[in-house]
Amino acid sequence: MRVLVKGAGVAGLTAAFELATRGAAVTVAETRHSLGGNASWFAGGMLAPWCERESAEQSVLDLGRNAADWWDAATPDQVTRAGTLVVAAPRTAGELDRFASRTSGHRRVDEDEIALLEPDLAGRFRRGLLFPDEAHLDPRQAMAALHHRLAAMGIEFRFGADARLASGFDRRIDCTGMAAVDDRLRGVRGEMLILRTPDISLSRPVRLLHPRFPLYLVPRTDHHFMAGATMIESQSAGRVTARSLMELLGATYTLHPAFGEAEIVETGVGVRPAFPDNLPRVEARESTVAINGLYRHGFLLAPAMARQAAELVFSHDKPLEPANETDRQRPSA
Amino acid sequence: MFELLGTTLPSRLFLGTAQYPSPAILADAVQASGTSVVTVSLRREMAGGRDGEKFWSLIRSLGTRILPNTAGCHSVKEAVTTAKMAREVFGTSWIKLEVIGNHDTLQPDVFGLVEAARILCDDGFAVFPYTTDDLIVAQRLLEAGCKVLMPWCAPIGSALGPVNIPALRSMRGHFPGVPLIVDAGLGRPSHAATVMELGFDAVLLNTAVARAADPVGMARAFGKAVDAGREAFLSGMLEPRDVAVPSTPTIGRAVFS
Lengths: 333, 257
Description:
The complex is a heterodimer. By secondary structure, chain A is α/β, with parallel strands linked by helices. Chain A is built from 10 helices and 16 strands.
């Protein structure tokens, strides 16, 4: 079966992998001239379904709990399994209890254990939560690794290509995110920045809770840190605003004052595609299967969505039907 | 039924639309609460023009009346610009006016508030000013042309509930004919019932519902509490007294023992 995957973001790459391992002849077409520049490029890369459950529905946890295994198998050496540390400043320490009551898969850690986990945060926080089963990766490195793996498997990549002109395919997988023609989609703007400081080392993503300015900080190689991310109901992909930058930097500084001396390596903006329930969908229409609405859960949920899409494509005997798992799992109000 | 500025509203609960887990849950919460007015902010979402359009159209589809707000505005100029933008986007002259005076406590800058209220009232807006429980400020807002007042009962998002009941009672007493809507600081349904029992006309809240573990259930609970508080106010509550009064009369005993 010849399959055209439109879009080389995290949804397209994971779908290409799932299809190719099932024996499809896959071509990936991407309008951009290289990997990156899309929402996936600006992602945090946290594989943190238990933390996300604080504000997301149960299906995000169900669909995302095996994501780290998927990435480990598809892109060896990319996943770091060190959990997530959640802390709050003393003045807003009540947020920790609120967060704990909304989530599972964590245990309380005290000042001494925080110091053992993250020596550079020693003495800064009295209490925290550790989510030991969570993991993280660097989205850009993981996408590059997956791209190489796919290329080695014989998958053709057409960058700078207009997929509308491509012909001769039995199935098309639409993974174009915000570029997809779908009235239900809206953009949720996320602003992030990358800092570099040799003064601090972290082994795992750290979330700093705050009622107004929550922050996550994901360690990357060579003393880099990704700080994110705002959530603004806007499809503007315009440059990061002063206020957002100020809030992110303020929160980073609260986590550790040494970040005040860090270099700002990059600021970035991604517009996340989302459906009204903020849950992803795999839908079939004629010979096209669409994966979309990954919202802020691209790397976490793309593997499960890719698997659903591949199963749908290979369900030969049956006509294509929507596999709308998240709808079924959402309790009706 | 609630008569407000010539409009009949079926509910005395107003809901904010920020911070919900998803627009779908927001829609369910609105439905469950029976609310007839939702507020929506524009300041940050309109940074690039009409880029928040998609979310705004979801808000429009809720089928309630929309009260746009100027949340996040720190100056008269910002607030006035945002109000005008809101009138265009939502086709309503109703505006919840917020001029924030302090970044940390988010308390209103009442001086800027009065000035912005005057400008907007002169421009034909129906201004719902987010204010403190200060009577003189309230008086100035009415003089500026406001027909309704929205006093806080505690700082925005604090969930503290009414921290100064005598001040709220005094406000209700001083402005008997003015619609008073308690805005900001409510944390639980009993808080809403309390201020409704004091005779306030309506309440507006956001965080207490949006950040609840189950926003839909909490929205329904607030809807009931607001109704209960209103009905209690209308029905005339007993004042507390020191003497126990048996609900069943006792006969044949000395009365003054």
